[in-house]
Amino acid sequence: MLRMENVSKIYRTELVETHALRKVDLHIKSGEFVSVTGPSGSGKTTFLNLAGALETFEEGDYFLDGENVKGLSDDKLSEIRNEKIGFIFQSFNLLPDLPLFDNVDVPLRYRGMSAKERKERIEHALETVGLASRMKHLPTQLSGGQQQRVAIARAIAGSPKFLLADEPTGNLDSLMAQQVMELLEDINSKGTTIIMVTHDDQLARRAHRNIQIFDGQVSDIEKAVANDVIRSA
Amino acid sequence: MFNYNFQLAIKSLKDRPSLTFLTILTIAIGLGFYTTVKTMSYQGGQVPLAHKSKNIFLVQMDNREITADEVNHQSRLVDTTYKDTLNLMAMELPGVKQTFNWYTYGILNVEDKNINPVRTTAGVTSSAFFTMFEPPFLYGNGWDLTTEKSGEGVIVISKLMNDQLFGGKDSVGENIRIGTKVLKVVGVLDTWHLTRKFYDRGFRSASPDNFFIPHTFAMDNELPRLAGFDCWAADADIARSFRLENTQRLINSECAWVTFWAEIPDEQIENYQQQLISYIEEQKTFGRFPREILTYVTNLNDQFSYINGRNDFMNVFSIISSLFFAVCLLNAVGILLAKFMRRTKEVSLRRALGAKKKTIIAQHIIEVMIIGLLGGLLGIVVAHFGLQGMMNIQIYASDYTRRLEDMQPLFALDFTMITKAFATGIVCTLIASIYPIWRLCNTPPASQLKSQ
Amino acid sequence: MEIKPIFLSLKQNKFMAILMIIQIAFTMGVLSSSVLVATETLQEWGKPSGIPHEDIVRITPEFFDENIDVGQALVRDIERVKNMPNVINVAPSNAVPFTAENMINVYLSNEEDAQEYKTVVFQSDENIFDVLQLSLIEGKQFTASDIIKGAEGTTPENASQVMISQDMATALFADKSPLGQTIWLAKNADPVQVVGIYSNFMTGERLNGRGKSYQSIIRPQVKWSQSRQPNYLIRVEPGKGTAMMEDIINVFYQERGRYINSSELLKRTQKRMYDGRGSRALTMLVISVVLLIITGLGMTGLTAFQVTQKRKQIGTRRALGAKKRDVMRYFLTENSIITFIGLLIGILVTLSITFELSEQASQNFMNVSVLLLTGLVMWVVNILAVWFPAKRAANIEPAIVTRSA
Q: What pLDDT sits at residue B280?
């Protein structure tokens, strides 16, 4: 599903070179729920940007759904983001001017779907997150938890291969965080791969597997067993 | 508090100098053009003889045939016949002065063979012209009634003619010739600034005539009469010939062609009009004035407001300059908004630290006032150059027949206009800033802080 | 296209949108009124003269001394001028190109209801063709023996042959050959025979204003009276005109008892012909262009501001799959919608201004194609104004979304 081989990312300014990621090798299988943890400045965000095809990199190869992302054009990267990845952000990043319906509509528009199909998908996605009745509302009229659910609806509306969640509960209180996590797990259980970046160990433990990033290097820890324990608890 | 706000305002002006400069420039250009046009219409619309313009009247009587078209405005009625001109001149009312004029032209020349002759237009008039219309004299004076009655050849010339023919010296008493007819200079006019050449009823923005001669001399010597002759059917066929010949027939005719003026003190106005009507009634007994009695006694103020209202070019220009200014102000609103909205974070922090809304408003009003002040100043500079430009365009368009010194007063930024421009600049900038300031000071305290 | 979401977004940013719309509407009002008035005034403007007007000097003398024999003076004048260095040729003429305003009607028959044709008659001698550099198109050109000279009132009174300009020939005879045809220079009177056709030259404003700039007739006669003397048209070596002007005037002043009323290069006569209306219309156009630039800059500024305000949103769109050109298109479409609404209101403003104008000047200024063209220009200018901020918006990194607020 997602395979990184020897991927490195270097930020250059006039004075310094920062190795944000060094020779990352990683393989995530279809249907997995993977959490990524690490202290601030460890390269989490860079990893997220590369995994989400938001940034390009110079070294190594990154296969996403069998396709090597390296060196693709900006347009092609946009298409990949649009079709294969669903994004969920810490600060929701909903478009404040647009009602929920139109927010969820955004990636579908770029996909060039027919109006009818878009409408069906949007309604379905909003139903999934339990906000179908409020689709004419503006994001500012919703609570944080609801906003994040809209963001999730927007992420899944296009049926992407995997979801990339960046601290999805970071701005939410624990009750809302719980709801959001349950929603993600539910989505995962229906087959969508999820990669979740978080600094919360407790949340991280709910994933099948946890990857730790430290100083730009990735250590892959098999967590399947531990996860099963938590789930059954 | 004011000091602190002032410092903050200065700091914020310096903060994004390019935006500040752009705002000032936009306001200056808009205000500059607006002031240019306003000054042109203000100066161009000024009524001459302001101190007595309400007492200077154009006198018109309807001596047309019964078949003539209905007239409903003074501007459409014909001039006065020669007969009536002489009769009215004989009418004496206390405090009332009367004069009349028409146009001629001639080739002015002097004995000196080294000085080339000049062809120019001229006013044919009576002695009261100079006391009623008060042209400024450089040397000498107008002629008196006795001279006028004697038919003697006397002439008042313009400064321009005096410069060209006499090298600018005091030429009073010198001989000058119109064609081959010799006249004596009795007066030399200084530059006579008229916004419009009103006395011939043409109201054109042209320079006044270059010489003036008594009507007696002009008629005796059959000088050309540049006038439109509105004649009865009997004379209509030969009307054109009256320009150069058939003087006696013209004198006896019912052709209207003389522009007649009266200076009437307030208390005599009613009486004067009454006298006109009695005159017409008397003339009716001789079979003249066949139509219903119609007279117009219109003062300069009314004539000017009519003419100014009909200045299409200036009117369009006024509309356009107002819209232009409005666009510039809208632009300023946009730039100010952009400038202020960058500051929401800072303002919400200040609000959180205890600054009152009032203080925030005060700080920004000071800032906007400074912008308006600078915009106003620069706008006046722009207007100055705008007026110079417009003046040169008009001099060019007149093919250099109008001189700088004639035109300058029409394009002068005087104290009134500068004050107005300045006030307009500041007030409009303040109005333009209402919305941006309102948006800014309504930033809730600390709203911008939570995501930090 | 994504028009609906743009509308929704505009609804949330009403003030900005209204600000832009009013700006565009007013600018459109000013621009199109100026352009409409200018097109109307500048019609028939700056047309080719058909003559080497930069090298022809025009002299108009006027005698005030009644004792002078004008006919004799005429001979002496021409003699003197011909002897001047750099003078190529000189012709007396009752009318001067660019200012020949003595428009008359001519007729093709002497019937009462004959159709009128507007024209100007130039009375001159055989040298006029060389002076004005007119070329013979058809028929014969006048020679010295064809010219009738004399004071007014002496016989023969008038020449019975004329030459006509190409445009005159087309107007009078269409495809027929004009040679040998008779025309009447006044109603029921003055029949003359057409013997030749010459190349077109500009007559003056009165015919020009009627779109008949080049309809003229040349009659081979030089007539004078005490109050009316011919003008002189003098062609000089190229480029020498300005320097020679003073010498030429002095030559004419050698004849005393007269005044040189007008002395100038025809270039200046031409300038004066177009001047008044030209400079007004051009002033308005210049002002409109300045306004257009200001509005353009305003649009750039406001859009740039919005781009800055919306960086995060744009990044989000990019992350959700918007290509660079989608972002560009978003801003250009948004601006086009605003421009379109602004233009519609602007057209209303224009209509009211031009209606007012047309009422006052009793002249119709409305011209739909000019109006639409102005709208198009405004739209293009707005697209250009928004292009750069939109380009900047398109270059916003999608990775911005993962940065914390």
A: 95
Angle at A109 between CA A108 and CA A113, to 5 degrees: 70
Distance CA B79, CA C62 (A): 31
Residues from chain B contacting residue C23 (CB–CB below 8 Å): 327, 330-331, 334
Distance from CA of A229 to the nearest CA of C (A): 32
Measured between beta carbons, the chain B residues lying within 8 angstroms of C16 are: 334, 337
| CB spacing of C23 vs B327 below 8 angstroms | yes
Q: How far is B321 from chain C (nearest CA, A)?
A: 9
Cβ(B299)–Cβ(B55) below 8 Å: yes
pLDDT digits (tens, 9 = 90+) for A104-120: 999 999 998 999 999 99
User: What's the complex ipTM?
Assistant: 0.88
Please tell me if residue C171 touches chain A, with a CB cutoff of 8 Å.
Answer: no
Tell which of A21, A77, A82, A93 to mutate to test the C interface (max C CBs under 10 Å): A93
Which chains form contacts with chain A, at 3 or more CB pairs under 8 Å?
Answer: C
Task: Tell me the β-bridge partners of C165.
Answer: C198
Determine whether the interchain pair C404/B451 forms a contact, defined as Cβ–Cβ distance below 8 Å.
yes
For residue A221, what pLDDT is reported?
Answer: 61
CATH number of A2-232: 3.40.50.300
Name the residue facing A166 among C320, C398, C402 (closest C-beta): C402
Q: Hey, how many other C-beta atoms are within 10 angstroms of the C-beta on C298?
A: 26
Q: Is the pLDDT of residue A233 over 60?
A: no
B1-10, B70-79, B258-267, C57-66: lowest mean pLDDT where? B1-10
Q: For chain C, which residues score pLDDT lower than 70?
A: 1-2, 276-277, 360-362, 404-405
Distance of CA C207 to the CA centre of its chain: 13
Note the residue count of chain B: 452
Alpha-carbon distances, residue C396 vs A55, C223, C297, C327 (angstroms) = 12, 82, 22, 10
Secondary element (H or E) of residue C149: strand C148-151
pLDDT band at A230 (very low <50, low <70, confident <90, very high): very low
Query: Which A positions 156-215 lie with beta carbon below 8 A of chain C?
Result: 166
Judge if the upstream peptide bond of residue C156 is cis by omega within 30 degrees of 0.
yes
Q: Which chain C positions have a beta carbon within 8 Å of A54's beta carbon? A: 319, 397-399, 401-402
What does the pLDDT average to over A63-77?
91
B390 pLDDT exceeds 80? yes
Distance from CA of C5 to the nearest CA of A (A): 7
Identity of the residue in C16, C261, C291 whose CB atom sits nearest the CB atom of B327? C291
> What is the Cα–Cα distance from B384 to B397, expressed in whole angstroms?
20
C142's enclosing H/E stretch is none
Q: Give the pLDDT confidence score for residue C199 in this predicted structure.
A: 96
Residue A225's pLDDT is 44
CA gap B3, B366 in Å, rounded: 10
Q: Rounded CA gap, B348 and B352, in Å? A: 6
The yes-or-no verdict on residue A33 having pLDDT over 70 is yes
Q: Are strands B181-189 and B175-178 parallel, antiparallel or unpaired?
A: antiparallel
| Alpha-carbon distances, residue C180 vs B415, C14, C210, C220 (angstroms) | 72, 76, 28, 16
Q: Pick the residue from chain B with its C-alpha nearest to C64.
A: B179
Q: How far apart are CA B174 and CA C225, in angstroms?
A: 32
Structure confidence by residue, pLDDT tens digits, A37-58:
988 888 888 898 999 999 888 8
Supply φ then ψ for residue B419, to 5 degrees.
-60, -45
Domain boundaries defined on chain A: 2-232
The CA distance from B432 to B427, in Å, is: 9
pLDDT at position C361 is 65
**Subunits adjacent to chain C (3 or more Cβ pairs under 8 Å):** A, B
